[in-house]
Amino acid sequence: MYAKTHMIAGGIVGYLISPTWVGVLGGAVSSLLSDIDEPKSFIGRKTLLLSVPLNWSIEHRTVTHSLLFAFVSAFIFFAVTVLTPLYMLGYVILGGIISHIVGDMLTGRVMLFWPMKKKIGIKMPFWIYRIVDMLIRLGLIYLVIHQLVFGNVFKNLLSNSIL
Ligand SMILES: [Zn+2]
Q1: Where would you find the membrane-spanning parts of this chain (predicted)?
Q2: What confidence tens digit (pLDDT) does each residue in 131-146 have?
Q3: What is the dihedral of CA 114, 45, 76, 156, to 10 degrees?
Q4: How far, in Å, is the centroid of ligand 1 from the Cα of 147?
Q5: CB under 8 Å to 138, separation ≥6 — which residues?
């Protein structure tokens, strides 16, 4: 899936876990983490010192697209922030990473249970991938606009504290 689609999905998941601006932002940003294994990805281009050696050592959509990566990342965040109010964001990070993995499984295959080598997901040619990604993105944008206009999302974001 493309970074924009991941970010919208991650922002929605972040909001569902923590209906705050930090929840939305945390979900959107953490939804990009998995593609750190690909130097050509949005986040990979910005972290070449990390993404290039990672890409040499591991295949794309393997370790960083696994449940283990999601839980270990969240655990590290919990451990570092345990004494601060940021602690709760660990759940947002977990949700953001899992939203990325699910998104990639809808448009391709990932090693969900790494270190098991089996790849899981819907494999498709690139031109179908682009159409599916666009349809999912448009659907998510519609959902966000609908909820902003007719739901309580905007009110919640304004009234809830920052965390
Ligand atoms: Zn990915």
Answers
A1: 12-33, 67-87, 135-154
A2: 999 999 999 999 999 9
A3: -110
A4: 27
A5: none
Range of the domain at 38: 3-159
Compute, in angstroms, the gap from residue 63 CA to the centroid of ligand 1. 11
How many CB atoms are closer than 10 A to CB 82? 10
Residue 1 in tokens: 């899936």
Q: What's the predicted TM-score (pTM) here? A: 0.93
Measure 128 CA to ligand 1 centroid, in angstroms. Answer: 17
Report whether 35 contacts 44 (CB < 8 A). yes
Q: DSSP class of residue 34?
A: G
Q: How far out from the chain centre does Cα 146 lie?
A: 22
Q: Within its chain, how far is the Cα of 39 from the centroid?
A: 17
**What's the total number of domains in the chain?**
1
Tens of pLDDT, residue by residue over 67-124, are 999 999 999 999 999 999 888 899 999 999 999 999 999 999 999 999 999 999 999 9
Q: Per-residue pLDDT tens for 20-61?
A: 999 999 999 999 999 999 999 999 999 999 999 989 988 899
Rounded CA separation 161/23 (Å): 11
At residue 3, does pLDDT exceed 80?
Answer: yes
